[in-house]
Prior knowledge:
Largest sheet: 5 strands, parallel
Strand order of the largest sheet: 6-7-8-5-9
Bound molecules: adenosine-5'-diphosphate, magnesium ion
Amino acid sequence: MNSFGMGGGMTVANIPDQQKLWESCLNYMSLRVKKHSFNTWFKYTRGIYDSDASSIVINVPNQFVADWLSDRYADLISEAIRETSGKSIDFLFEISHPSEFEPQTEIDFNPRRPEPAEIPAHARLDYPLNERFRFDNFVVGKFNQFGHAAAVAVAEAPGTTPYNPLFIYGGTGLGKTHLIQAIGHYVQEQFPRKKIVYATSEKFTSDFIYAVSNGKINDFTSLYRSADILLVDDVQFFSGKESTQEQFFHTFNDLSHSGKQVVLTSDRHPRDIKGLEERLLSRFSSGLVADLQPPDLESRIAILRKRTDHEKVVIPEDVLYFIADNVNSNVRELEGCLTKLLAYASLEKTDIDRQFAERALGKEIIRPRREISITEIQKKSAEFFQIDAAMMTAKKKTSRIALARQVAMYLSRKLTAFSLKSIGEAFGGRDHSTVIHACDSIAKKMENDYDFREKVTSLEAALLC
Ligand code: ADP
Ligand code: MG
């Protein structure tokens, strides 16, 4: 456990209840900070008044939250303690293991708290953001807490944190675009004078190519370099595009030298983006690199519930559970199932219950990913390539064994939610970079070799049925 002290004040006696005090402080602060900021920084705290040391020990999930609270909210915390206890009491932070963390209290937010004014005309955004991709619609759990906290941190104080650039990475459908656009929305509303430029890396590339071939490079440069906050989604597509990378490198340097915020997303860690110039790789990794993991069951249910609330439809809990239990790979698929279910129900003009959901989301819709283990993939791949299953974890390397192993790694990556690291471990303690190499080379071989693609696809189908 780490701890460090904050605040200043005198000893106090007779605090009514050691835990209630912090709950009152939370209530006080919830009326003074925006809801999602509160949920990010305070919801997972627990405070206990230690009367021997006459201080409040505030448990937080990680150093990141401790730093942010002490940098940005120390005064508010002191004020909350003073206002709710009538005294000044020291406080200090302690980092606790994340599994100990459940939200402290459900805070009823004051509905009269003024919402930010509407967006003034001079807020300029050169690429529309999806209305739904806001922090308020983003479900936070242990699986994505760090990435979310980092995103909120830069949105609250763009360009003034050490998290520049903020690099968010994670598998497909895990919320990268949602988060990066939520930063855009937040900055647009809270800092209306700041110019936000949002682009996918493909748009950046095509804008650049257009500018070069039409003699409009100055327009291009002035658009991207005038940003106060530059959001670039899916930078893995810069891979292998040398002149675009060079242009991006200069844009990046220019912005970061003038204290502008850059946020990037990618489906993999910067070091795993192939064909990325060394200097760009080092820039990408120079701020904060945060990852998003697949959601656990409870969070998957919460995500579905949030979506049904948003759509104003009512779906029984057991149906939500059924979907969340069966779709465990990513949020996009989870939502896809819900959409399909609603579509079927409206076509058949029927209420949705568990039987209907099972019928509507039959085998062909819900692939039984939950049931596929890496061991099973290894076994079936070994059978398919007619090698001994033990070779999957062995050192031995004939070309057939190596190919079978690579295909099994590729399918493990595709059909399960395990991380590259866990997959590597399951294949005889291999490194995550070996798994990436396997995935890339199988994908490439599938692109170029029709027969091979057919083989892998049929193996995948066999695993799924
Ligand atoms: P990515 O860019 O990582 O592929 P997206 O950001 O496009 O994924 O997310 C896919 C879908 O899942 C979107 O509709 C998004 O709103 C939703 N989504 C992802 N993560 C969450 C979350 N934590 N809470 C609510 N919705 C989420
Ligand atoms: Mg995306």
